[in-house]
Amino acid sequence: MMAQVRLIGLDWGTSSLRAYLYDADGKVVASRQQAWGIRQLPEGGFAAALRAITADWPACVAVAAGMVGSRQGWHEVPYVALPADVASIAQGMLRVEDCASHELWIAPGLQRRQPADVMRGEETQIIGALAPQSLHQPNRRFVLPGTHSKWATVVNGRINAFDTVMTGEMYALLIRHSILGAGLPAESTPSSFVQEAFVRGLLAARDSGGEGIFSRLFSIRALMLAGELLPAHVPDFLSGLLIGEEFRIARLRDDGDFSPLCLIGEASLCQRYALAAQHFHYALPAVIDDAAAQGLWQLACAAGLLVKAQLHSYSGVTA
Amino acid sequence: MMAQVRLIGLDWGTSSLRAYLYDADGKVVASRQQAWGIRQLPEGGFAAALRAITADWPACVAVAAGMVGSRQGWHEVPYVALPADVASIAQGMLRVEDCASHELWIAPGLQRRQPADVMRGEETQIIGALAPQSLHQPNRRFVLPGTHSKWATVVNGRINAFDTVMTGEMYALLIRHSILGAGLPAESTPSSFVQEAFVRGLLAARDSGGEGIFSRLFSIRALMLAGELLPAHVPDFLSGLLIGEEFRIARLRDDGDFSPLCLIGEASLCQRYALAAQHFHYALPAVIDDAAAQGLWQLACAAGLLVKAQLHSYSGVTA
């Protein structure tokens, strides 16, 4: 099938690269994914990765977001300050001069000053998630679970505040390298989620009061030694403890604000956060699987890149 | 010089083995240390390690404490319940039948039921630290900093409560394996302690309120990216944040109890904790470098092992 295409979007993080090809109206007509995150580029580096993932696509204008704009990325793009919206983020985009294959623009990340915090890539997902609905809900909270989970507050389409919690990284460190992971059965598959253990962890975090989970982590070892926690339940208990800590902290900050949460991320991970939300008395959150493609399109619009963007014909559309 | 010796004490942990030789009055007349913790034994295992570290010492009765009594140790010795004192711990000691070289007894660890927690080895250090002074101070709190820091409360010579915080292990994990340790200069030497960075971490923990440091860890990365924290200051900032979290939690539990702390452990580590105590408004704590030797002697006394213990002549005393 033939389509008129206008833009290439690149969601380019630490461990993966996703590319989207959009038609004239912003509909994704083709997409590809590779493990070419900025820490594991193919031979030839950034330029080669871009050429390979867009092979046989027309050379449209391209917009990228994520760690590709960090100091370790292709071209460092300075952070934009809070509060930030689609316009101020688009204004912070920089063109990569040493990209021969495409007119390539990289979006900036966001920076909070006090206390210091940063994000790169998640701002684009939030922009994408906001796009269709921002007029209906003036105040929204987004949770983007992952290696470094982000909690962001959006008021009238502007990202006002956000926090990073190293939940995913901490989980991996503790399971792989700490005493808590010693003597466990071989790594469980996602399908073997032990909800009972996960909820037990959630409740331990919730009921830790102002102490938090730092003084509860070792109890995993002690419970296992006492025969009160099965080794096979340790991973999900720990996951519940860490995700529960995110919600415990959020609750302290909320101060009675029960405005709805929106989860953006991979489905099985969002399922855990939805379960946590329920145990911390949040209304059932909305879940968005992937908002980056939509966010990249919005940023290109706001940056005025689509006005001048030439339409190309592309015959590879399969649907 | 010739001495009459009566007992061998073994402080046998995960990563090291210390042996003490005592005279008839409990004075240590010789001591040795090897890296033969239970996870890195020499060829021949436990028996060979014991024979080698006591080579040319008389075959006195021997008392051991620490991970040597764990499931992964030489002989598992069941935990003793709280509250525990020198008598109940001594009563829980088990003799190792398959030790051909010595009459060897291993001390039990302690177990708290709710929430679950365990210790092995620290109970012996606390017993040792108590011995000379217990009559003068009915209520005492002990802090044993390390891989798994222990905070214990002693009332009238009985260990009533304790908590484990994985401070040392968490520090090592985060510096070696996480994003927080990425891009730091080569590992710093103990002499390069940056007090300013350590105190900054302490205060960040103290001022985190009921949230705790879980949501503050990523700020280390953000501060570094913003040029507000030197890479060389990251290790001590993180150390301050983690040790500060121990004190933040302790403060919440204390509820106005300002009874003095006693630190037991390696001098440079205790120095950090003493600095933390000061910033959390505790009176300057007492510091005891090594209390295990004294504790092992006390346990042998209380178990009645010294009554029947034969005196041996030993000519290797150097002082």
UniProtKB/TrEMBL annotation, chains A, B:
GO terms for biological process: D-galactonate catabolic process. Keywords: Kinase, Transferase. SUPFAM superfamilies: Actin-like ATPase domain. The keyword Kinase applies. Coiled coil: none annotated. Transmembrane segments: none annotated. GO terms for molecular function: 2-dehydro-3-deoxygalactonokinase activity. This is 2-dehydro-3-deoxygalactonokinase. The lineage of its organism: Bacteria, Pseudomonadati, Pseudomonadota, Gammaproteobacteria, Lysobacterales.
